[in-house]
Amino acid sequence: MDNTLYLLAGSMDSAAQNQQRLAKNLSNTSSPGFKEVFTRVESETSSGEIPYSQNFLSFSQGSVVSDEDPHSFAISGDGFIEVVKDDEVAYVRSGYLYVNNNNELTTSEGRVVQGIDGAIIVPQGQQAQIKISEEGVIQAGERELGTLKLMQFSEPHKLINEGGTFWNPAKVEANVDKDSRVLQGHIEKSTVNNFTSMKDLVANMRYFETINKVTQTVDRSWQNLLQNGR
């Protein structure tokens, strides 16, 4: 038996992984700060072998738009805001900020926003007065509460996506970002193109179905050959 079925099985597995990638992109077309996941061939192979491909993130700046919501924020530049939940550090570029029951500034997902000196505490009754400067300085009325811990990465493509718009630094070194700007009342739109992603999803699904049919045909041919050869 040649390696036809092996190649077909590999192609089906690759198509299935691609389908997951495309579905993830499509489900995040409206997620603030989401970065589209691409795939690329990492190595050329000889005839009869399956090319090795890998997913990667492009951290190109998404469109930053005003939504006139004082809870929203976006980063203009390459920076990230540091957040913590259950002692796990993650980074985010856009979203919505609120105050939890401990008076800590958090994301809408409940991750505690980190300032240069730790969690940012908002005095009781001043939640509606929060202002964020472009330099990341947090104020409630005339009182300064702290400065956002704004970081950047020399190799952002190595960050691990935790789902949605949060990234785990893993072993990637973070450095203080002095160039990016924090824009309150703005959102960084997802870099996913809804139309293109839907088109690619349908095309990949059809490709998977075609490979599946070919695999079944080849398998039946081998079964017939084995039976007739007895």
TrEMBL record:
GO terms for cellular component: bacterial-type flagellum basal body. GO terms for biological process: bacterial-type flagellum-dependent swarming motility. InterPro entries: Flg_bb/hook_C_dom, FlgE/F/G-like, LlgE_F_G-like_D1. The keyword Cell membrane does not apply. Pfam families: Flg_bbr_C, LlgE_F_G_D1. Its main location: other. Keywords: Bacterial flagellum, Cell projection, Cilium, Flagellum. This is Flagellar basal-body rod protein FlgF.
